[in-house]
Amino acid sequence: MIHHADLKLHVAPDAVKWLQMRASSIGTGGLGKAVVYLYWAYKLAFLRGDESITAQHLDDIAELTMGHEDAQRLADVVAESSGSRKVG
């Protein structure tokens, strides 16, 4: 995946390991999410002027995206458990 992406930045070994773990995770989006995280981590590293994509870039992106998903999931659970209907 990394070699075929034709990235202009180096992917550090810790990022490769991070992506391999994410891609092989069952039930979490696996390879699809790994590709999305790599794309956004590339943009983040490029904008910061970094020469490599690191696991920290990937963690930063995962935290941003998971924070939104977790907040929505929590809101859905709270609404369901309280008997409230979701509006919108």
Can you tell me about this structure?
The structure is a single chain. The chain has 88 residues and is mostly helical. The chain has one domain (10-82). The chain contains three helices and two strands; from the N terminus they run E-H-H-E-H. Strands 1-2 form a two-stranded parallel sheet. The radius of gyration is 16 Å and the shape is globular. The N and C termini lie far apart (38 Å).
Question: Quick gist of this model?
Answer:
The protein is mainly α and 88 residues long.
Structural descriptors:
globular; mainly alpha; 88 residues
Structural class: mainly alpha
- Taken from the alpha-carbon principal axes, the silhouette is globular
Write out the strand line-up for the largest beta sheet, numbering strands in chain order.
Answer: 1-2
Tally of individual domains = 1
- Give the helix tally: 3
Unreliable parts: none
> What is the percentage of strand-forming residues?
under 5%
The overall strand count is 2
How is the topology of this model organized?
Blueprint: E1 10-11, H1 13-23, H2 30-48, E2 52-53, H3 55-82
Parallel strand pairs: 1-2
Helix pairs in contact: 1-2, 1-3, 2-3
